[in-house]
Structure formats: structure tokens, C-alpha cells
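Go through this:
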Amino acid sequence: MLLGYDEGGEIKFIFTDSTYLEKMYPKNTAKISNFWGSTHNLKELFVDKIEGSIDDYKVVDGQLVKREVK
């Protein structure tokens, strides 16, 4: 799964077809620009799976972390 996130760690892009990614972009070489034409200043992160909603997560120091419940 390919995630694109902004400077604040907010996930702005998600591509879930891991089979397609591995076939077209082996070894996690896909970039956001492969799908949007430009990066929109997003960084890429590859993850195996997400439990629950993507809205429950953000990216901190290059790692996907679950948001704190308030």
C-alpha cells in the first residue's frame, strides 16, 4: 500500500492495490508522481496493511502511527 503524506503527517493519498504496485514498481519504487503527475509536496510511505480507518492514522518520523483518542 502506498501512502502520500504532507509535512504535518496528514495522509493525503492512498493506493491500496499492492499487487499492481509490486508488478509495476518493484521493491517499493512507486512515487506519488506516478499517479498524480506531480508530488504535490507529498512524501511516500509503503505499508503492508492498516487496521481500521486510514483516518485513525498519521505519519510521524517516517512511521505510520495511530492517532491518540481525545
In short: The mean pLDDT is 90.
